[in-house]
Design brief:
By secondary structure, this protein is mainly alpha-helical. The protein contains 23 helices and no strands.
């Protein structure tokens, strides 16, 4: 591969120290070595990589690490570093001969999930970049790349305002597509199967399969399809993006999860599916709640409610109310929590059977009871006397109407009930529910289940006089060590 058209001489990228720094994503060392052996100033590196000189300075000094997928792409393209050297797929300029001056690097907005323009072509390009990178990275490189924190606050919320506006007209593609409605239906059925698997088992065992299917859909959308097929493909992309996001989040990959959530939201927007877009925003709100940002979560829920007020069915409205209630619970606003929970119950009571999209079918009376119990448990940790009994009662209602077939939800219910019993001081019942929770957890691959199970462990410490509590502690420890 000819790199002479870039700012670096070919022998610079052949140096072992530079290759090692790039492979390890140690851009502080890589930039310092490129300055030394490539003769590039910090300003020249900044211009080539579309960074500010100040950012390059903080990277070189070690004050800031590069974890953003978009920034890694800009560095690779700006310095003409082959994709494989930084854990990416081959860059576009690697696969075509150079004639004359090289093309300038694509603007960051065409690839960055939080700043990409809300055009269908940008969404397709974003999907292709995210999935290609995800598929070719080995596990260690992926862990380093996606370890960055999710964005939040104004940078996140302001970037989503365009979701409320009509989708711009799609630009015509240069290649004619050959996919028909039958193939789109098969892709949609695959997306539904992946969602059902994730909802039951959780974890990321099939995440790469979802990402591969998402890449396939992006390749079809890179071709000129009929308007009907194009819209359907964007809706499939949104659903697959939502599953990929949930799987990444359940595996603790929060930045990667947010990238896929943002992709799913843009795809839903391009496909004219405001209801699913609201569902994606609810997923993003849940991520904010798990990272102790209830104000951001509430803003996301309100954005979802506003954008889907004319299309949301009863189950979706009910689910959004529970996310709203969750945010209020995290803020300690008990009265607002109770109001939003009542609104969720009222909306769910309006739901006709079998008339809503498959992706919201899970939200029934059992789910409402389980979610409400979980939020009451959150408040009970600060005030057991007021909330623990109500939390246990709500979780028991969920357990009576959904059993082991619910997979991840069933395990989370049992873990929550065990914690309620510890808070209530009923050690015997708590130990019994802990054993049931460990049994249920063994059938899932969910990172959330393991995290919640780990929260039970402190309740068993310091009670060594009780043989039964010691046995429960040993079982938790064994489950978490495998």
């Amino acid at each position: 591969m000819d790199t002479t058209t870039g700012p670096l001489a070919p022998d610079v990228l052949d140096r072992e120290d530079i290759r090692r720094a790039l492979a390890e994503h140690d851009f502080a060392a890589a930039f310092a070595l490129i300055k030394k052996w490539g003769g590039l100033s910090q300003n020249r590196i900044a211009v080539a990589c579309q960074l500010t000189p100040g950012k390059v300075s903080t990277i070189i000094s070690g004050q800031q690490q590069v974890t953003s997928f978009d920034v890694i792409c800009r560095i690779a393209d700006g310095l003409r570093i082959p994709g494989h050297m930084v854990g990416l797929a081959d860059r576009p300029w690697e696969t075509r001969p150079q004639v004359g001056p090289p093309d300038p690097p694509r603007p960051a907005a065409s690839r960055s999930p939080d700043s990409a323009p809300w055009r269908s072509s940008a969404t397709v390009g974003l999907a292709a970049d995210l999935t290609r990178s995800d598929l070719v990275m080995d596990r260690r490189t992926a862990a380093r790349t996606v370890a960055g924190a999710a964005i939040f606050g104004a940078p996140l919320l302001d970037s989503l305002e365009a979701w409320l506006q009509p989708a711009p007209a799609a630009e015509p593609a240069t290649r004619r597509g050959r996919i028909g409605s039958r193939e789109v239906q098969e892709l949609a059925a695959t997306a539904q199967a992946f969602r059902a698997w994730d909802h039951k088992y959780g974890g990321g065992l099939r995440r790469k399969a979802v990402v591969g299917q998402l890449n396939e859909v992006a390749s079809h959308l890179d071709e000129q399809q009929s308007p009907t097929v194009e819209q359907a493909l964007f809706r499939v992309m949104a659903q697959l993006g939502g599953v990929a996001a949930t799987m990444a989040w359940d595996s603790g990959l929060h930045k990667q999860a947010q990238n896929y959530y943002l992709l799913a939201l843009r795809a839903a927007h391009a496909g004219g599916d405001s209801s699913f877009g609201a569902n994606v925003l609810a997923g993003m709100a849940r991520q904010m709640l798990y990272t102790d940002r209830p104000n951001d979560a509430l803003e996301l829920v309100h954005l979802a409610q506003k954008g889907a007020r004319d299309s949301a069915g009863p189950r979706l409205r009910a689910m959004l109310h529970t996310r709203e209630a969750w945010a209020y619970a995290a803020m300690g606003r008990t009265a607002a929590f109770e109001r939003a929970t009542r609104e969720a119950g009222n909306a769910l009571a309006e739901s006709p059977a079998d008339e809503e999209p498959y992706w919201i079918a899970y939200f029934d009376k059992s789910e409402l009871a389980g979610v409400t119990g979980g939020r009451l448990l959150d408040m009970a940790r600060n005030d057991p006397h007021q909330h623990a009994e109500a939390a246990a009662a709500s979780i028991r209602r969920a357990l009576t109407t959904r059993g082991a077939e619910a997979g991840r939800s069933h395990a989370l219910d049992l873990i929550g009930l065990a914690e309620c019993q510890f808070l209530l001081g009923d050690t015997s019942e708590a130990v019994e529910q802990t054993h049931r929770a460990v049994d249920a957890a063994s059938y899932t691959q969910s990172g959330r289940v393991r995290t919640q199970l780990g929260q039970l462990y402190p309740y068993t410490v310091g009670r060594s006089a009780s043989r039964t509590v010691s046995e429960a502690r040993a079982r938790i420890r064994e489950a978490l060590s495998t």
